[in-house]
Here is the input.
Amino acid sequence: MPRRKPRPDPGPAARPLRESQSYEAGPDGEWNVRRLTGAATGKTYRCPGCQQEIPAALPHVVAWPAAGDGEDRRHWHTACWSARERRRPRS
Here is the structure.
């Protein structure tokens, strides 16, 4: 039987974005939350919790107020999002 050639890796841009969206309520309000794996993220963001960069391809959280339309969404480090009740966003 002839051997098959291995398929080339399509790269991160062609892979589907794996994400899960949920709704979270806390003392700071009600939020829509999307957890990104970072596989399809090709951009660097700045976390409002610690003001550090979130490099491309790093798993992180995108959150916006539940009453909003998503235009005011922010990208957070997962740990900063989890600690947002103890640490307020910096300006």
Observations:
- Confidence is low (pLDDT under 50) at residues 10-18.
- The chain is about 5% helix and 30% strand.
